[in-house]
User: Which sequence fits this backbone?
């Protein structure tokens, strides 16, 4: 079976060819249309049969819309806030306030960075304790000023490094889990790309947890799982299947509350549709929560997590 | 009423199952000295020569902490399930069965209630022998139940961790136990009931990054490995050798991440004193 990237390249090449045929005007339009139909069928077939591993590739696709893209295109009037007031300003999490469909909200999201320079600056979207503490500080502000919170999850995981451990990575994540559970305002979290373990959970203890169709959310990366349980990187596809990390699996397991559909060829092929779907679904989720009292919000969130497991 | 029915009374006089490797002589993993089993056991499984703290099975730990004949095990009806039907090199169901046979436990944590120097306490204690003390849905549920019980009955809660982290074979469900257990701790906070977290070798990953680091007071046993990411993962990520003593209890104390490092022989007294002072 060919990989997603090979397929994408092929699709682009064919699409160009068909456009060329059309523009040349030398061929019978009926024949060209026939070719195009076949081509569309093939695309539908391919994307209709994506394996979990294919979805991992889409979730990590370099062109996929990132937190910054959502902030710039779905939100307005964004003001970014910086720093955890203890040690530093994490660059892997963006936090601030903005308007969402005219409503003032708090928005927090993990950002992987686009080009090499930015990726390094953003630590590849792997937050440090400073990131988590900043996120919590801003969430507490949202609670103080009674603004709903929208978080965007897109991280390979919390950063595994010396300074992260020295600054208390475990404590930072744990504290967010506890404090988010107590927030008296609506929290909607959306996994837009990669939901990497505790590093993702630390900003997604939400009243409503949504996932983009091709996003993934997992206790460990498929690579890490293959290395530990199979002791072989060749088994990464098996690990991916076993982990049940796709949006459909997680909806079936009752972990998430909804799936935000993506354009046929993935979010990275059509930003506009992706943003439109995102807005529609998040707005609906917010609408449902805005009617709840602070106490009901805390209770609903507690019960949502309380029932997961045995 | 029904709750009472499910509680199994343990006989305080009954000798706990033998810890760690069987055999008359045990070699210290640190200084390689050979010790007679009985001698080691009477020294609370701490090497008399170098002070190395051997891992302790959960039941033995409970006998070390509770006053003789005072504790009962709780939530014994909980059985792990293979919700994802996870198969790696072995089916998860088989791994569970093997771990259960090896340890005589149903899963990696024991909940108990009893007296510590005459004071009521609830303890959740990990057993590292059971799949590396990993947290799946049963572990998460038991911890949560003990926290909720502590909040309801206003009894101090003590958790003794020894875990590699989340249990991969339960996928996202084990990840969510981090949120579930941590959220429950908000109840304790609200009612002003003390929670003391004891970190023993090793306490890593999803256990470290949830309830284990949320104790009102955090105690670690000497030289325990404690952290979010495992040392090997960190080395591979940053391509550097890690400094000596990195992620050990003493390192954490120095960095302000825990309150104290307490030797096993002093643990009961320390806990007793804290419960007395904070309750």
Assistant:
């Amino acid at each position: 079976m060919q990989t997603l990237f090979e397929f994408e390249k092929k699709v682009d090449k064919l699409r160009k060819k068909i456009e060329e045929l059309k523009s040349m005007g030398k061929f019978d339009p009926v024949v060209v249309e026939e070719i195009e139909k076949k081509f569309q069928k093939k695309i539908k077939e391919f994307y209709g049969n994506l394996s979990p591993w294919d979805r991992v590739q889409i979730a990590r696709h370099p062109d996929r819309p990132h937190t910054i893209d959502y902030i710039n295109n779905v939100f307005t009037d964004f003001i970014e806030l910086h720093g955890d007031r203890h040690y530093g300003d994490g660059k892997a999490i963006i936090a601030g306030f903005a308007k969402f469909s005219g409503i003032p909200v708090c928005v927090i999201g993990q950002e992987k960075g686009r080009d090499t320079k930015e990726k390094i600056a953003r630590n590849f979207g792997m937050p440090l304790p400073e990131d988590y503490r900043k996120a919590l500080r801003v969430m507490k502000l949202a609670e103080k000023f009674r603004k709903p919170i929208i978080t965007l999850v897109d991280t390979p995981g919390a950063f595994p490094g010396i300074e992260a451990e020295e600054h208390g990575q475990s404590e930072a994540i744990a504290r967010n889990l506890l404090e988010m559970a107590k927030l008296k305002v609506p929290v909607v979290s959306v996994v837009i790309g990669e939901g990497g373990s505790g590093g993702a959970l630390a900003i997604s203890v939400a009243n409503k947890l949504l996932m983009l169709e091709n996003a993934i959310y997992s206790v460990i990366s498929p690579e890490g799982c293959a290395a530990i349980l199979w002791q072989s990187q060749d088994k990464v596809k098996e690990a991916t299947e076993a982990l049940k990390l796709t949006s459909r699996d997680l909806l079936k397991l009752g972990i998430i509350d909804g799936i935000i559909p993506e354009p046929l060829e993935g979010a990275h092929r059509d930003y506009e549709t992706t943003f439109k779907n995102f807005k529609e679904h998040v707005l609906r989720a917010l609408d449902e929560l805005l009617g709840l009292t602070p106490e009901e919000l805390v209770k609903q969130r507690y019960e949502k997590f309380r029932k997961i497991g045995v | 009423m029904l709750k009472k029915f499910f509680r199994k009374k343990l006989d305080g006089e009954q000798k706990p199952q033998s810890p760690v490797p069987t055999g008359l002589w045990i070699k210290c993993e640190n200084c390689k000295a050979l010790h007679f089993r009985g001698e080691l056991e009477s020294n609370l499984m701490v090497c008399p020569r170098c002070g190395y703290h051997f891992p302790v099975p959960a039941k033995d730990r409970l006998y070390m902490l509770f006053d003789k004949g005072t504790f009962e095990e709780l939530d014994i009806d909980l059985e792990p399930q293979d919700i994802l039907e996870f198969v790696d090199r072995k089916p998860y169901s088989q791994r569970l069965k093997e771990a259960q046979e090896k340890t005589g436990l149903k899963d990696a944590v024991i909940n108990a209630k009893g007296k510590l120097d005459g004071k009521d306490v609830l303890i959740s204690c990990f057993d590292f022998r059971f799949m590396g003390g990993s947290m799946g849905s049963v572990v998460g549920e038991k911890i949560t139940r003990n926290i909720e019980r502590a909040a309801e009955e206003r009894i101090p809660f003590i958790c003794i961790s020894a875990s590699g982290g989340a249990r991969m074979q339960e996928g996202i469900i084990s990840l969510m136990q981090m949120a579930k257990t941590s959220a429950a701790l908000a109840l304790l906070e609200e009612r002003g009931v003390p929670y003391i977290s004891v970190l023993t070798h090793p306490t890593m990953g999803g256990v470290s990054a949830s309830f284990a680091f949320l104790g009102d007071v955090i105690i670690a046993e000497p030289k325990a490995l404690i952290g979010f990411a495992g040392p090997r993962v960190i080395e591979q990520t940053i391509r550097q050798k890690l400094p000596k003593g990195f992620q050990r209890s003493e390192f954490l104390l120095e960095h302000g991440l825990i309150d104290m490092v307490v030797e096993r022989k002093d643990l009961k007294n320390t806990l007793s004193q804290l419960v007395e002072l904070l309750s």
Summary: Chain B has two domains: 1-54, 55-278.
